[in-house]
Amino acid sequence: MLQKTSRSNSESFTELTMKGESVLGYCQVTVFTSTYNRRYTLERLYESLRGQTVKPMEWIIVDDGSSDDTYQLIFPWIETEIDFEIIYLRVKNGGKHRAINKACDLARGDLFCIVDSDDYLTNDAIEKIITWEQSIQGKPGYAGVAGNKGFSDHQLIGRTFESEYVDATSLEREKYQIEGDKAEVFYTSVLKKYKFPEIQGENFITESVVWFHIASDGLKIRWFNDIIYIANYLEDGLTKNGDQLIQKNPKGTLLTQYLQASYYQQFILKEKEEVRHYIHEVLVSGDLEAGITYLNGLIPRVKNDIDIQLMLAQLYLYLGKISVAKNILNDMTMVYSKDARPYLKLGKIEERQQQLSLTVSHYQKALLYLDESANQSLIEKLKKTYHFTSNQIDRVLLIRVKEHYKKGELEEAKQLIIKNPAIDESYRLELGFYFNNERFVYYIIGLILGVDDISSSPEDLDYVKAHQLFDQCQYDQSLVYLFKVLSKQLTPLSLYRLSYILKQKGQLGLATKYENLYRLVSNQIKSSGRIYFIEESTTPLHKFRTDINTIFHQMGFHSLNRELELGNFNFSIFDTVLFQYPFSSNVEKIFNSCCTLNLKTILVVHQVEDLNEMIQLNQASRLIVMSHDLKTKLIEQGCYCQLLVREHLDYLINQELVVPTFSKNVILVEDDEILDDWNDNHSFTLNVYGKKTVQERTHLIYKGEFDLEQTPLKLEGSFGLVFPHTTIDSWQVSLYLLTKRPLICFEGTELATFVLEHELGFVISTLDEIEAKLNEISNEDYAYMVDHMTPYSINIASGVYFKQALATALK
């Protein structure tokens, strides 16, 4: 008997059912299909249902406003089908989720199986669904069963476990390698209890909203390892058009993301409790390696939680694997940038390793995010141990920012932030981008301070929401708003954060695109800043200071002396000022002013005479020192500022140098400490330069003392001799490399390793070995060594090594 009934309500529809006596018996499975203009695919699905090995089922079709006369295809089926009942509903375009709600109300089956209109079932699908349901029948805590989907009977979609079945909630899928689309079949009674939310004016919400709700309440699914469902992802399907659906259904999308985040949060809290219990047992037993293996094997959503990562880092520390622990903690500071714990732990590690610069940097960061009750002891430590003044403590700066912000003094707060390198660069760049936009300056400073109730105009709500959600690690929700923000304006903070989220999602191509845009915008903002340097009068005795001034000019930096003379100098937000140290009292005043303004300052340190200078040196943003020995000395005396050392000491020269030829004449410059042991029987000649402290003897000739400009031109001899204490970055080594004199150095030193590795000379254990070594060298051997010195000579003469160190310092 064919019935056609019209009902008038908010969603008018026509119900067509076949109620033959043979099909109105017991119904175990309701197969549900929502269709929209899929007349051309439905027949394949129908044939798969007709081909089922068992058929205690019904088929409910909800036509969601099709315009392709789908009903003309279905009416004959209803009239002729005798094995199962077909129920056809024609509704307005309300979306698949509304169709599921309606079908659940009508369903007679104990189980509810959703099959999309472009897909179909394997011939034994219904039989397997019923069989697996019987294995859980009567057992509490189950929502249903689920099989696999495939591209074909033998090609699985996603990934699955190896056993016959697994009992798990939908939130636990990742834990058991249940990945990709699956064919979930729920008890109809469960779906009637967990209805899809219906939002007026929108027609899409993802199924995971309900699936996760069911899972959050602890109801499991028995997942079995058979393909029962064949999927075809058509170009006009929901899967392929996800982005458009998100844009057209913003409220539903946000609700989905909110609910998913809430359900996952509950799930992760439960998982973390299990982890804590296990790690406690590990610590009691002492099997730390087992604990590490366990933590590394957790699903990413749990493993990447900050508490779990802190546990993992601590286990590595217990095992003495410090570098691994540091890598984990450093990664955490990128993801959880406003949590003090990773910074505190890193600070303690670096303190034990006497890396004072990094120690102080991490403690400063921790102070920004510690609560009031926990920060005082750390502030006292910075003051007493590291001689900090209150103005040097970043937390004090942030407190001042907060005070200005509360008073509405945005300009003062902005200046404090934008010039302070302790504040994340992406925030400072954002302030630079919106420098004259008071409204956005207010938002950005509020975000930096972690203000919850930032009041914003309706047109700016997307911006504030995007970044507040990011700071709360709600990345899926943040992503929606970030795309909206960037459709209006490419701001550095938004680009940086969007790139980060996409990277976490594995969308590396898109992430790279936005990362490159971030760099482009950032460089445009930074280009508004200038690099200045201070020139002080020098003499030939201060050649290396003169060389550095020359390099500053070559690199196009601006002389601050000239600006001050003109009286028109004003610092901009991204300016950097370069100094050479020691400096005069007048220059010291300028340096102190720059520090007060929180400008980036770089000191090129030639020497340190008084250890009391540490307080002043530590105020700089970076230090470039002339040698590794000086770096070591500064660190030992409490220097925690970032220190950079150039690879070789540059030695600028404008005149062309004569390429040396082979002879048995050796050069010694400013280093005659062991010449008292000189053997007059040597057949080679040693030409000595510098202050005359020894008497001339056979084959030992004093050549005189020359200033540093003239010395390279006055050298006579084919080799340069250096003694054991001489380092790679000494000026003597640079002089020999500059003038292409192959080096003679003592074995067992870092310099000896460098010389042998790069074939720049030879190594001895005593002076008496020099003569024999020289006798072994041919003209070709000598030319080979000189040729290998050429790149070093060119680099040293043009200041390449200082330029490299400076480029690093300026980053």
Keywords:
single chain; 811 residues; alpha/beta; Spore Coat Polysaccharide Biosynthesis Protein SpsA, Chain A; Serine Threonine Protein Phosphatase 5, Tetratricopeptide repeat; 5 domains; 11-stranded mixed beta sheet; 6-stranded parallel beta sheet; 23 strands; disordered N terminus
Describe the structure.
The termini are far apart. α22 (492-504) packs antiparallel against α23 (508-526). This protein has 811 residues and is an alpha/beta fold. It folds into 5 domains: 2-236, Alpha-Beta Complex (Spore Coat Polysaccharide Biosynthesis Protein SpsA, Chain A), CATH 3.90.550.10; 249-337, Alpha Horseshoe (Serine Threonine Protein Phosphatase 5, Tetratricopeptide repeat), CATH 1.25.40; 414-526, no CATH class; 531-645, Glycogen Phosphorylase B (Rossmann fold); 665-799, Glycogen Phosphorylase B (Rossmann fold). The protein is built from 34 helices and 23 strands. The model is unreliable at 1-23 (pLDDT under 50). The strands form 3 sheets. Strands 1, 2, 3, 4, 5, 6, 7, 8, 9, 10 and 11 form an 11-stranded mixed β-sheet that branches. It has a 6-stranded parallel β-sheet with strand order 13-12-14-15-16-17, sandwiched between helices. β12, α24 and β13 form a beta-alpha-beta unit.
